[in-house]
Amino acid sequence: VEILRLAQSKRNINSLNMDLERDMQRIDEANQELLLKIHEKEDEIQRLESEIIQTRDLAEEEEWEKENFTTMERERALQELEEETARLERKNETLVHSIAELERKLTRKSQKATKCEQGNLKGTPEESKAKLQQLEASCVDQEKDLAKVIEDYAFVAQLCEDQALCIKKYQETLRKIEEELETRFLEREVSKVMSMNSASKECNSQNNQDNSLQKKKTGFFKRIFRYFFFTTLFFIRLLGYLFFHISFINPDLFVNILPKILSRNILWKLRCFLFPSLTLETEDVLPH
């Protein structure tokens, strides 16, 4: 009865081992599928990240080129305004010199006119009147020229003031544009750092998931190994008990139990199989 119970327990353990092996095989296949899916997802994530980085870099380069183009245009316009201002300043200086020259000429002519009047007082009154009329006409013409020069000077001065205001406005706009470019550059750098941090966090989370799966897998294999180890220890202990029982308590255990369990045909086959190994060959030793 004890042997029957042991055989039944052995069959149960063997069936359990087979079930465990099938479960382990299914779990290994599921783990392989999960690992393949994880690798595919990682490759897809890396591809998407590379595409996002490339598109972001292209967009940033295009935006940077546009901003550089606009800044270059504004700098060129500012340079043209500065050249125009310098030209107007040179014209203003020439007008100032021309006004001073006209004033000197007027003073010299007035001095000459007074000298001529003083010298011609001795002449006839008709000649003095004609000369006086000529001098008055020349004075009127010179006054007209002087008024025209003063108007030109005022116009040029107004243009210079307008150009100076435009230059100040352009300088302010350029300073604002430079500040905006610096802030955008800093924002892009910060966004790059944040994206790198998020990518590193995602990689760390993915690594943690892989490590957790690996830990679960190793824990499962450890449990199975412990199960097989203790099962083998149990069978070794049972075999030890059986060997001790056969050796010291009941040497004829199998002789008494096997005929009750097995049929005659099986017993005959077992006897034919085991008889040569259990029989001592003493023909050469015995005397003839």
TrEMBL record:
<dbReference type="GO" id="GO:0016020">
    <property type="term" value="C:membrane"/>
</dbReference>
<feature type="coiled-coil region">
    <location>
        <begin position="6"/>
        <end position="187"/>
    </location>
</feature>
<keyword id="KW-0175">Coiled coil</keyword>
<keyword id="KW-0472">Membrane</keyword>
<protein>
    <recommendedName>
        <fullName>Transmembrane and coiled-coil domains 5A</fullName>
    </recommendedName>
</protein>
<feature type="transmembrane region" description="Helical">
    <location>
        <begin position="224"/>
        <end position="244"/>
    </location>
</feature>
<keyword id="KW-0812">Transmembrane</keyword>
<keyword id="KW-1133">Transmembrane helix</keyword>
<dbReference type="Pfam" id="PF14992">
    <property type="entry name" value="TMCO5"/>
</dbReference>
<dbReference type="InterPro" id="IPR026617">
    <property type="entry name" value="SMCO2/5"/>
</dbReference>
